Amino acid sequence: MEHGAESRMPEDRPIIDWEVARRSIPGGEAGLRDVGGMMLEDGPRLLAELRAALDAADGPRARLAAHTLLGGARHFGAAAVIHAAATIEAHLAAENLDAAAAATPALETQLARLLEALRAAAKGG
Amino acid sequence: MDPHENPTAKILVVDDSAMDRKVAGGFVTEAGFEAFYAESGQDALDHVERDAPDIVLTDLRMPGMDGLQLVTEMRASHPDVPVILMTAHGSEETAVAALRAGAANYVPKTELWRDLAQAIQVVHDAMLAARGRAQVRDLLQEQSLHYVVGCERGTTRALVGHLQEALRQGHLCEETDLIRVGTALTEALANARDHGNLELDSTLRAPGDGSYSRLRLERMAQAPYCERRVHVHALLTATEATFTVRDEGRGFDVTQLPDPRDPANLLKPSGRGIVLIRTFMDEVTFNEQGNEIRMVMRPDPDSD
User: Fold this and answer.
1) Beta strand pairing call for B34-38 and B10-14
2) Which fold has domain B141-297?
3) Taking CB atoms and an 8 Å limit, are A38 and B30 in contact across chains?
4) CATH number at residue A79
5) Into how many domains does chain A fold?
6) B189 close to B195: Cβ distance less than 8 angstroms
7) What is the mean pLDDT of chain B?
8) Contact A71 B63 (CB under 8 A)
9) Which tens digits make up the pLDDT trace of B140-151?
10) Which residues of B touch A68 (CB under 8 A)?
């Protein structure tokens, strides 16, 4: 998996910390590719799960989705995604579903950045 | 390392997140262990039944049966399979509860790359050591212990504790039965000391005027009583424990011993010790002279 300028957002630091990713994911380049592919599949699914759970006012289910997303982002050192997901998890721990819903767009934005960077890296571009 | 002596440990990785399973399993494999996977606590229990892992490595927060419940279940149903926790921010309290519930170790999820291999190795080494002890125990044909004790009561208590520990280490006795066996041994030693060597008649207890204790103290300093010893022999095998307690007194008429099946004997002022011994031990016999009791206990075949 390649990495570099494609991972950077012009207005921010890189969404993926490749040093953390190389350290946190076993299996070298193949491992990065595999886990990156899994994040590309699971990330949108978990975000949809979070939204559906919030719509259903199911706090525990929403918290599990946010927690799992956070865990996935952690493998890539994606601090912006981790921060956004942790904010939602904290709101849900306090049973504040409205605040969690209000914080979800920020997570969506940062997750989109992460997924885009992973797609770019997978293409080797 | 000879794989026949120390085959690759099988690690069951339990996590509801496919990504986290992949990552943890990757580090397990890189550390030289074999990884296989479960997606939930219940799935893990099914795998444990079917695949007999050496170690379970589990996430804490999972839908359905979580990591803490899994640790509790494992402790109850598979206490010989250690569980290592993967912890994350926000699950610290659950992790502490799981460690108290019986988890063997933990590794923060953010530090798997650095700490997981060592954590597994530490638990694996401890597990092999425990299995080694169990193997040696299985090889043991018999253990023979012989003690000679005087009339001091403290010595009797220490000796019974020592014999209980030998039974525990030999897995010859359940924890609850240890107390019953200890009671039987204590009664046998007291009988040998007081009624055998010191020749104290238990009917002296009935008046409750201290005459039994006074005579006891007197004879503990008076020949020939004070020179007599109690000989205790314990023979422990894989299938039974035999205790022989012999005193150096005159013996007694064993045909007069109380029958433990008769409830009336439970209320009599004398003979209680013999009733307890006959109740708690599987087999009780006396020599012809009546100065030696032989007690056999066998582990419950339904217990581990």
Assistant:
1) parallel
2) Heat Shock Protein 90 (3.30.565)
3) no
4) 1.20.120.160
5) 1
6) no
7) 85
8) no
9) 778 899 999 987
10) 16-17
Q: What is the distance between the alpha carbons of residues B248 and B292, in angstroms, rounded to a whole number?
A: 9
Q: Does any CB of chain A come closer than 8 Å to the CB of residue B108?
A: no
Give pTM, 2 decimals. 0.64
Task: Locate the domains of chain B by residue range.
Answer: 10-138, 141-297
What's the one-letter identity of residue B301?
P
Look at B19 and A26 and tell me if their CB atoms are within 8 Å: no
ipTM value for the complex: 0.87
Residue B111 touches partner A, C-beta closer than 8 Å: no
Neighbouring residues of B187: CB distance < 8 A, sequence distance ≥ 6: B272, B273, B274, B276, B277
pLDDT at B194 over 50: yes
Domain ranges, residue A9:
5-123
A28 touches chain B (CB under 8 A): no
B102 at interface of A, judged by CB pairs closer than 8 A? no
Min distance B69 CA to chain A CA atoms (Å): 17
Mean pLDDT of A44-69: 97
Distance CA A92, CA B195 (A): 73
Closest CB from B22, B63, B113 relative to A38: B22
> Looking at residue B268, what is its pLDDT?
54
CA distance B82 to B254: 51
Candidate from B19, B26, B30 with C-beta closest to A72: B19
Give the tens place of pLDDT for each residue, B252-298.
Answer: 887 777 665 565 555 455 666 787 788 889 999 999 999 999 999 98
CATH class of residue range B10-138: alpha beta
Closest CA–CA distance from residue B118 to any residue of chain A (Å) = 15
Q: Which of A17, A29, A35, A41 to probe by mutation at the B interface, max B CB count within 10 Å? A: A35
Look at A30-34, A50-54, B53-57, B211-215 and tell me which has the smallest mean pLDDT. B211-215
Q: Which two tokens stand for residue A86?
A: 């942790």
Give me B45's structure tokens. Answer: 């229990």
CB contact under 8 Å between B26 and A23, yes or no, is: no
**DSSP-based three-state secondary structure for B271:** coil
- Largest separation between any pair of C-alpha atoms in chain B: 82
B22–A72: do the CB atoms touch at under 8 Å? no
- In angstroms, what separates the C-alpha of A41 from chain B's closest C-alpha? 10
pLDDT digits (tens, 9 = 90+) for A60-118: 999 999 999 999 999 999 999 999 999 999 999 999 999 999 999 999 999 999 999 99
